[in-house]
């Protein structure tokens, strides 16, 4: 298991673990936290925020009992879609969590781990992984470089967390219908600058 910071810096590597029913992501994380592997509780810190995916859902209770805040995407639980707040919160978490997936991608595309690994290397596999992670930390650029632009995006996003989904409201009220629409009478699509496109897609 690889634990990374929000900038993509690899903080620690734990394992390898057997892949079976007893060693899913949640049970591995619970064991790590409860046994304080690598003194993790000291450097995570009280009230720290742990960002995880839905595969860690069974570890949430343990993490919260240890005084940590857990950020995890919501579950639909049989619904067709999230309510507005859940959807926005999930977007916020995804905005941070992509870093974890990018680090995993870097590991999988290293020359050694981008191939079939023989079982005979299992005793030294952790050492190899530590070496690859150290090389990534030293020679690869961080996923996110602190900048004023990042701060501006965060300041723009935060007030929008509790905003209502006005488009959904209008659709629910049946205020729009595409039946019998004359495309020639519709207004032309606005031309957007690169800054506007970046703001819409990334902001």
Instruction: Based on Cα principal axes, name the global outline.
Output: elongated
Q: Which percent bin holds the helix content?
A: 40-55%
Structural class: mainly alpha
Number of strands: 4
Per DSSP, the total helix count is 8
The major pleated sheet works out as: 2 strands, antiparallel
- Report, as a whole number of angstroms, the end-to-end distance: 30 Å
**Strand order of the biggest β-sheet:** 1-2
Can you tell me the residue ranges where pLDDT is under 50 for at least 5 consecutive residues?
none
Topology:
Elements: E1 2-4, E2 10-13, H1 25-34, H2 40-44, E3 49-51, H3 60-65, E4 69-71, H4 84-108, H5 122-139, H6 148-157, H7 166-172, H8 194-202
Parallel strand pairs: 3-4
Antiparallel strand pairs: 1-2
Précis, in short:
By secondary structure, the chain is mostly helical. It contains 8 helices and 4 strands.
Overview features:
8 helices, single chain, 203 residues, 4 strands, 6% strand, mainly alpha, 2 domains, two-stranded antiparallel ribbon
Description:
This protein has two domains: 2-139, no CATH class; 148-202, no CATH class. It contains eight helices and four strands. The chain has helices at residues 25-34, 40-44, 60-65, 84-108, 122-139, 148-157, 166-172, 194-202, and strands at 2-4, 10-13, 49-51, 69-71. A two-stranded antiparallel sheet has the order 1-2. A two-stranded parallel sheet has the order 3-4. It starts with a strand and ends with a helix.
């Amino acid at each position: 298991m690889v634990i990374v910071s929000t900038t993509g810096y690899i903080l620690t590597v734990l394992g390898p673990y057997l892949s079976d029913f007893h060693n899913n992501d949640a049970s591995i994380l619970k064991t790590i936290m409860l046994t304080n592997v690598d003194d993790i509780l000291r450097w995570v810190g009280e009230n720290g925020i742990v960002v995880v995916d839905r595969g860690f859902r069974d570890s949430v209770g343990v993490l919260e009992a240890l005084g940590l805040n857990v950020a995890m995407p919501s579950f639909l639980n049989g619904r067709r879609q999230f309510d507005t707040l859940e959807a926005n919160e999930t977007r916020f978490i995804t905005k941070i969590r992509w870093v974890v997936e990018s680090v995993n991608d870097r590991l999988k595309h290293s020359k050694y781990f981008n191939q079939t690994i023989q079982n005979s290397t299992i005793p030294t596999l952790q050492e190899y992984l530590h070496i690859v992670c150290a090389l990534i930390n030293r020679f690869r650029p961080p996923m996110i470089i602190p900048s004023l632009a990042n701060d501006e995006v965060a300041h723009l996003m935060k007030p929008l967390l509790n905003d209502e989904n006005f488009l959904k409201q209008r659709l629910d009220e049946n205020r729009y219908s595409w039946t019998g629409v004359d495309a020639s009478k519709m207004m032309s699509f606005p031309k957007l600058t690169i800054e506007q496109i970046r703001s819409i897609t990334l902001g």
